[in-house]
Structure formats: structure tokens, C-alpha cells
Specification:
single chain, 257 residues, 6 helices, elongated
Amino acid sequence: MPIQLPPVHLPDIELPPEPADPPNLMDIHRAWMFCRRVDNRFQLAGVNATADYMASPEDFANAQLYLHKVVDAADVQPLILQAVQQLNGINQLLNQHINDSNQQFNQINHRLNNIDQQFNNINQQFNGINQHFEGINQQFEGVNQHLHVIDEHLNRIGGRLVDMNEVLCQAYNQGCKDGAERQYKVIPFRLPDGGVELPETVGLPPLRNARAIENLEDAHLNTYLLQYNIPRAGNLNRRTKVQRLKAFIIGGTLSSS
């Protein structure tokens, strides 16, 4: 006789499919899973949950009754025999898988042993190479020390070249007077690493004549004074700042035109 589904209606919990006649193992499993879900909702009693979400005692009893009906109606003996046959089949598959895995592991083990022997041979070769490189490294250390001395000497020469370029630019600019007819040469900024950088690369207007110096915005004027390392105080007026920048660019002061 077919078993009717339980009169349980809860959100997110679907009723199991109608069981076969008589019920089989899958029907028992589905009934058991359904009973578990209802039991979980029933356990929410006393927890902060909505009433339509919790299972009532009647829902819990109907789910339990449905499970017992399915189990009682099932022909247990054939089901047990079916389960044993399935377990035997699974056991055979597992044993075959274990045997195959053992064979693969043995092959991998053999390959690893061969690789280990190859690595030992390679390590011996590397030991000889390392000894050779140690001698080369000692030679390189001597060369590096020599290069370090040369680098320091080049840095001193580079600093002198920067000084010389700055002086040459100032001398040239002084000969240009106010720069109206012949423009000034731009004096690069000195960088902490010994290099130089043109003002245009950092967004500053180039100082090609005296008018360009006089027309600088206050922010650009302060940046030029800072980058050229020209001493200035916070209370200096704009005119004094402009005169100091002119003195650096052209080696003297010019009256504003």
C-alpha cells in the first residue's frame, strides 16, 4: 500500500518524492534526511527565529511517523542483501584501487631512487664547480674593491663637473644681461645622488630671462630657492627672494624692468 507524504509544510524544506511500493533503500534515506531537516527546525524553539520558519511539535511528530512508516513498509531483508552486495562491490573497487596505487607508488619509488642517484652525481660536479667559483669570487672581490675606488673618483669628478657647469652657466647668463636678446642657459637642479635634473621636468617654468624670474608665482619662486640651495628665511619679502634668485642665475642683481 502506498505511503502518503507527511503533512509538513516549512519554508525551504521540500517533501521527499513519493516512496516506491514497497520502499527501497533510497526511500529510507530520503525519509531520514527529511526527518533530520525538520528536527533541525524543531530545535530552533527558544531561538530568535520567526514562527513560520520553526517546526512545530506536530511537524516533528509527523516527520518521525513518516520515517517509521517507510522503514516498516520496506522489505528489509532484500534491502540488507542489496546493501551488502553494494558494499562488497565497493570493497573490491577499493582493493583494486589500492593495488593499482601500490604498483604506481613502487614505480615512483624506483624513479625517485634513480633521480636521487643522479642528484648525487650532480652534487659532486657542483662541488667542483663551487670550488672553482670561489676562486673566481676572490678575484671579483679584488676587482670590486678597485672599481669602488674608481667609482669614488668618478663621483668626485662628476661633482666637479656639476660645479663647473653651474659656474659656466652663470658666467654665460651674466653676459646675457637681462636675457631679452640672448636667453639664459637653464641651470639644472642638483640631486642627492649626484645627478642633475632640469626644472622643466618637475613642472617649473624655465628661467630664460630676468622677466621670467620676476614673473614667477610665489610657489615656483620658493621651489627654485629650495632646489638651488639658496639661503632664505620665511620672513623675506618677495623682492628680496627675486633678487637672490637673480644673483644665483646671473651672478649679480638687476633692477626690475
